[in-house]
Write a sequence for this structure.
């Protein structure tokens, strides 16, 4: 136990990177030989000091610590474990889980009177408000964390809180306040000696100088913070500084230095899955290529930025909405609890009043008759009042049911709206932006004829993608409109398939793909809405081409059984796993992230969802048989025409 206390003391008095590393290694060595609450303490400390540099290892320690704390009924250590897990989920971008763990950790810390841990949790809660872009509320949380940590003398949390307050003031462009809190954090850190916190402070300080266009000062500060981040091996800090320093070098005219740090930023961000920093590095590198006149590489880097940024925007919007809903529900539950407490207090007050009345009645027989008459009228009024309350309660229940129904309807409408916005924002904005960028460059004379001829093929792919997505979106939107009716007719499925193969023949030639018909797939008549089924056919054929490798064969076949016609399309492409198939065929309407094709073709994730819905609208069924790396077979089952059945 003494050596455990020694290592914890070493960690608490010094934030020096070498001392931390030595103490952490020593704790790891003694961990296998410890048991009980000693092991619990070590697990929590290891998780805390590793969560910024070795996330998976920290998660394993925190998970075991949480289980041990529950078994020992130790709320203080359980709060530490949950706070560590909440922060790890925050770093992973799983904000709703982070909020749930942080909320539980705060309650446990308060119950255990562990103010230092409560201050840590308030930093996590402030970070979640930051992700909501509610910077004012985030500042309130971080200031409260600073006050508590200052009271208990937790220097590490004090400096961390000051840095976070400065960062949020920077986001609302209050640069003087941001600078003031950053300087306080740096001054406090002189005695602590924490390289990580000092690097964070310097990064915020560099952002302030950059916002004020004091580029030389920003450059020096960023370089200093980056060097500290590299020496500590904190990749999140490094990645956030590479693109900042690259932008500063560009504005200072140091183009080669800018290129070097931006390429390094792309490497570090990509290796560690830091998508936000990766997209910003691609954007800055595209700006570098534009400034040196290399428009081909600028176009390539801009395309990578757009693809990554669209995925980040969509995910952030979904996660931010889920987080806001979770916090709203938590506030609602708290309000309901306060209401119940108030009702109980009111009921207790009324019971006490009744006891006083009974006492007064028993005080004198002379007043009994008068009191009985009074109580009679009082009782009648109470019954009337209770009856009125019951009616109000029924009305409130009915209003709540109506509100719940309207809420569900509103969610469905919002879901439809979000689908359309997602498609327009993700699949139309990018290609149209690329077309605009190239046209602007051509008009301004930045592109030669040879460069334009080389890029025109890329433009054609983008325009084809926009046209295909627009057609899908318009057909789907029409099908969602009130009053839409199916126009079912008998038609030749084989002929409709052949017509659509002619439309995609350029794509087939581009990939050297062959289409093979079986002998049974001819003279097949179905009874359905021809326009909707054509959309189904075109999307399925397009997917088969998209995921086929050059030189593959796409097989088409059909069969008639029990008044139903089944049309099959089988490719030899990349295939899908069972989880992907279940998601696509679920009853829910989900726009999943579309995988890139074998030649990096993009998709919206809407195509198969439209196929599923349009097939079901025509009393049919869509099914998928596939395994990764072994191709995919998509089947569409539709009612046969009466002509075919009678024959």
């Amino acid at each position: 136990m003494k050596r455990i206390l020694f290592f914890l003391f070493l960690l608490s008095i010094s934030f020096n990177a070498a001392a931390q590393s030595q103490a952490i290694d020593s704790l790891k060595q003694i961990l296998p030989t410890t048991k009980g609450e000693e092991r619990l303490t070590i697990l929590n400390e290891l998780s805390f000091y590793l969560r910024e540099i070795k996330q998976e290892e920290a998660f394993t320690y925190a998970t075991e610590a949480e289980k041990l704390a529950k078994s020992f009924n130790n709320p203080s250590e359980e709060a530490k474990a949950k706070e560590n897990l909440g922060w790890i989920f925050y770093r992973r971008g799983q904000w709703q889980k982070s909020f749930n763990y942080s909320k539980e950790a705060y309650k446990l810390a308060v119950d255990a009177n562990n103010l230092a841990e409560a201050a840590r949790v308030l930093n996590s809660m402030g970070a979640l408000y930051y992700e909501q872009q509610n910077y004012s509320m985030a500042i309130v949380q971080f200031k409260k964390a600073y006050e508590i940590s200052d009271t208990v003398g937790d220097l590490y949390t004090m400096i961390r809180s000051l840095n976070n307050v400065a960062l949020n003031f920077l986001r609302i462009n209050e640069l003087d306040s941001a600078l003031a809190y950053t300087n306080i954090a740096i001054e406090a850190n002189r005695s602590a000696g924490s390289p990580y916190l000092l690097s964070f402070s310097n990064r915020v300080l560099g952002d302030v100088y950059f916002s004020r266009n004091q580029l030389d000062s920003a450059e020096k500060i960023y370089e200093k913070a980056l060097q500290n981040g590299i020496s500590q091996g904190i990749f999140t800090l490094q990645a956030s500084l590479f693109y900042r320093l690259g932008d500063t070098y560009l504005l200072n005219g140091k183009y080669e230095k800018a290129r070097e740090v931006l390429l390094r930023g792309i490497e570090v961000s990509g290796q560690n899955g830091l998508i936000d920093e990766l997209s910003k590095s691609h954007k800055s590198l595209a700006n570098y290529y534009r400034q040196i006149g290399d428009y081909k590489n600028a176009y390539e880097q801009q395309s990578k930025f757009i693809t990554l940024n669209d995925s980040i925007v969509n995910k952030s919007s979904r996660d931010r909405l889920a987080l806001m809903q979770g916090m709203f529900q938590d506030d609602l539950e708290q309000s309901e609890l306060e209401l119940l407490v108030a009702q109980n207090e009111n009921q207790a007050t009324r019971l006490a009043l009744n006891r006083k009345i009974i006492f007064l009645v028993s005080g004198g027989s002379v007043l009994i008759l008068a009191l009985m008459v009074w109580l009679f009228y009082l009782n009648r009024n109470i019954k009337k009042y209770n009856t009125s309350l019951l009616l109000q309660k029924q009305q409130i229940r009915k209003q709540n049911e109506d509100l719940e129904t309207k809420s569900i309807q509103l969610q469905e409408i919002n879901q439809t709206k979000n689908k359309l916005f997602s498609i327009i924002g993700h699949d139309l904005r990018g290609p149209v932006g690329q077309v605009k960028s190239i046209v602007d460059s051509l008009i301004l004379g930045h592109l030669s004829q040879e460069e334009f001829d080389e890029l025109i093929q890329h433009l054609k792919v983008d325009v084809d993608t926009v046209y295909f997505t627009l057609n899908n979106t318009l057909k789907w939107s029409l099908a969602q409109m009130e009053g839409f009716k199916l126009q079912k007719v008998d038609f030749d499925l084989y002929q409709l398939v052949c017509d659509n193969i002619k439309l995609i023949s350029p794509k087939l030639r581009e990939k050297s793909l062959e289409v093979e018909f079986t002998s049974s797939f001819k003279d097949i008549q179905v009874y359905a809405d021809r326009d909707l089924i054509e959309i189904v056919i075109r999307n399925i054929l397009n997917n088969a081409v998209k995921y086929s490798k050059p030189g593959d064969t796409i097989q088409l076949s059909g069969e008639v059984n029990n008044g139903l016609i089944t049309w099959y399309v089988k490719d030899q492409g990349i295939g899908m796993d069972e989880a992907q198939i279940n998601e696509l065929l679920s009853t829910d309407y989900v726009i999943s992230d579309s995988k890139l094709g074998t030649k990096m073709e993009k998709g919206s994730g809407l195509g198969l969802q439209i196929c599923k819905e349009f097939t079901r609208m025509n009393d049919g069924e869509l099914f998928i048989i596939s395994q990764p790396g072994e191709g995919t077979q998509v089947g569409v089952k539709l009612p046969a025409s009466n002509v075919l059945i009678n024959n």
User: Anything to note?
Assistant: Residues 1-15, 331-344 have pLDDT under 50 and may be disordered. Strands lie at 488-492, 514-517, 525-529, 553-561, 564-570, 621-626, 632-639. DSSP finds 24 helices and seven strands in the chain.
